[in-house]
Amino acid sequence: MDRYRLTLTIGARTIMRGWWADLPTAELKYTRWIGERGSINGTRITLTDDADNGQVLQSWSDETR
Fold first, then answer.
1. Half-sphere CA count of 42, side-chain side, radius 13 A
2. Is the CB of residue 41 less than 8 Å from the CB of residue 50?
3. Which residue of 15, 22, 23, 34 has the lowest C-beta tally within 10 Å?
4. 29 contacts 15 by C-beta, under 8 angstroms
């Protein structure tokens, strides 16, 4: 079962989701998504642990720039 979920939203719309079984791979994808899509206005990318009631592990938003 894949445990770690990435969610990409732009504005209020979910654009993409992905799940990975191991944290290092999910963290690599998280960083990659920021590099690939982080310059789009309204972007928010979150990494959550679905096995831990959806605890947010990392979150990135263009508002932090």
1. 7
2. no
3. 22
4. no
CB count within 10 Å of CB 15 equals: 14
pLDDT tens figures, 22-58: 999 999 999 999 999 999 999 999 999 999 899 999 9
Kindly report the pTM of this predicted structure. 0.88
Question: DSSP of the chain, one letter per residue?
Answer: ---EEEEEEETTEEEEEEEESSHHHHHHHHHHHHHHHTTSTTEEEEEEEGGGTTEEEEEEEGGG-
Number of domains in the chain: 1
**Long-range contact set of residues 57-64: C-beta below 8 Å, sequence gap at least 24:** 57/4, 57/23, 58/27, 58/30, 60/30, 60/34, 62/38
Q: Which of 40, 63, 38, 41 is nearest to 6 (CA)?
A: 38
